[in-house]
Amino acid sequence: MHYISKILIVMAVMLVAQNSMAQPPTRKVNTTEKKKGSTATSPQVTERAKSQYPGTVTPQEVDWKREVYRTLDLEVEQNASLYYPVEPIGESMNLFTLLFNNILKGNITAYAYNLDGYESFTEENIIAPKQFLDNYRIYYEEQNNTVTVGKSDIPSAEVLSYFIKECHFYDQRTGTYGKRVTAICPVLHRAGEFSSEVTKYPLFWLNYDDIAPYLAQQKVMTSSRNNVSAMSLDDYFKKGCYDGEIYKTVNMRNLAIAQYCKDSTEVKREQERIESEIDDFHTNLWNTRTVAEIRQDSIDAAIAAANDTIPGNEKKDKKVSKRKAGSEKKATEKKKSNNSGNSSKAPRVSVRRARR
User: Fold this and answer.
1) Helix/strand/coil (H, E, C) string of the chain?
2) How many degrees, rounded to 5, is the angle at CA 197 between CA 196 and CA 203?
3) CB under 8 Å to 125, separation ≥6 — which residues?
4) pLDDT by residue (tens digit) across 63-102?
5) Alpha carbon distance 174, 162 (integer Å)
6) pLDDT for 114-136, tens place per residue?
7) How far is CA 20 from the centre of its chain?
8) What is the pLDDT of residues 146-168, one digit of tens each?
9) Which residues contact 43 (CB under 8 A, 6 or more apart)?
10) Burial class (CB in 10 A: 0-12, 13-18, 19+), 83
11) Is 38 a residue whose pLDDT tops 80?
12) How far apart are the C-alpha atoms of 133 and 71, rounded to whole Å?
C-alpha cells in the first residue's frame, strides 16, 4: 500500500512538469510582457481601452447638420485651461504638450493642414513626427531610431490658439440634438527673425476620435478662484466650455467668412447671423412647428439677406420710405386743417346771468 502511494505521488509530479513544459511560447511571452508592463511609471491607453471608450461618432443619417470652424484664442480667460501650465508640473500639462508627446510616441496620428483649410484624415496626408520637427525647427535628439524632445524644447508657449471643427446635428429617429468637436488644429504664433511681426502657422489636424481616450485621462484646472475645480480635457470639449468665434462654415463655395465679407464690421455681423441661426434651430426644435417649417424659415431668411445685398435695392427702400414719410406728413397736415375748420364753424354759446 505504501508502495502504491509513492507511485501516485511520482505520477502527479510528472503531470505537473509536463504541463509546465507544454505551455505555449506565446503565453510565456505575454506573461513576461505583463510583468514588465506592471512596472511602467506612466499609464498607457491600450487597444481594449480604446474600443471600450464611449463612442462619440456623429450619426451618419441625420435630418439636419451644420458644421462650423471656430478659432480659440488662448489669451481669453475661458480658454486658459488649454494653455496652462506652459511646461509640465508633475502630472499636470497643457493640451499641446499632451498631444505633442503622444504624436512622438506614435499613439496618435497627425494630418497635414492643407491650403483650403479643410481636414482630410487619409493616409496620404499623414505627417511623420520627424518631418514636423524639421519643418518648424524644433530641437530634438535621435538615438536608435527614437526621437526625444526635452520639456523646455516643446513649443507649447508659442501655441496661442486652436482651430476646431464643431458639428451641430439633429437626429429625428432618436429625437436628439447634439453638438460635438470633430477635429482640432494647434496654431503656432511665431515672430520673424528680423521683425517683431507675428505669423500664425496651423500645424496639423487631429481627429478628435483618435485623441479622445487621452484627453479623458488628463485633468485641467477650470477656475482661478477655486483651484480644486477641475475636469478632463474630454469633458471640457464635450460640455462646450471654450469660447471661440466662427471663421468658416462648410459651404458649397468653400469660402471663409473673411473672403466674402468686405470689412470687419460685416464679418462680425455674419458671425452673429450664423450663431443666431444655430441657436434658433436648437430653441425652436421642440416647438409646435415642424422641422420642414423651420427649414423654410431658414431659406426665406437667406433669400431676404441675398435681396438686401443686391445693388439698387437700397435706393428703392429709400424711395419707399420717403413716399411713406410724405404721405404721413400730408395726412397730419390735413388732419390739422380739418380740426381748425371745425373749430371756426362751431356754434357760439352765450351765458346769461340771472337777475337777483
Assistant:
1) CHHHHHHHHHHHHHHHHHHHHCCCHHHHHHHHHHHHHHCCCCCCCCHHHHHHCCCCCCCCCCCEEEEEEEEEECCCHHHHHHCCCCCCECCECCHHHHHHHHHHHCCCCEECCCCCCCCCCCHHHEECHHHHHHHCCCCCEEECCEEECCHHHCHHHCEEEEEEEEEEEEECCCCEEEEEEEEEEEEEEEECCCCCCEEEEECCEEEHHHHHHHHCCCEEECCCCCCCCEEEHHHHHHCCCCCEEEEEECCCCCCEHHHHCCCHHHHHHHHHHHHHHHHHHHHCCCCCCCHHHHHHHHHHHHHHHHHHCCCCHHHHHHHHHHHHHHHHHHHHHHHHHHHHHHHHCCCCCCCCCCCC
2) 115
3) 111, 112, 114
4) 899 999 999 999 999 999 999 999 999 889 999 999 999 9
5) 32
6) 988 889 999 999 999 999 999 99
7) 55
8) 899 999 999 999 999 999 999 99
9) 217
10) buried
11) no
12) 24
Q: Is the peptide bond before 85 cis (omega within 30 degrees of 0)?
A: yes
Nearest to 215 by CA among 136, 300, 97, 119: 97
Q: What is the pTM of this model?
A: 0.67
Tens of pLDDT along 224-278?
888 778 899 999 999 999 999 999 999 999 999 999 999 999 999 999 999 999 9
Measured in degrees and rounded to the nearest 5, phi and psi for residue 127 equal: -105, 130
Amino acid identity for residue 355 in this structure: R
Buried b (16+ CB within 10 A) or exposed e, 31-59: eeeeeeeeeeeeeeeeeeeeeeeeeeebe
Could you report the per-residue pLDDT of 105-117, keeping only the tens digit for each? 999 999 999 988 8
> Are 83 and 74 in contact, with CB atoms under 8 Å apart?
yes
Residue in the structure block whose three cell numbers are 513544459: 21
Residue 247 backbone phi and psi in degrees, to 5: -115, -10
C-alpha dist (Å) from residue 214 to 15, 55, 250: 47, 14, 28
Q: In which residue are the cell numbers 445693388 written?
A: 311
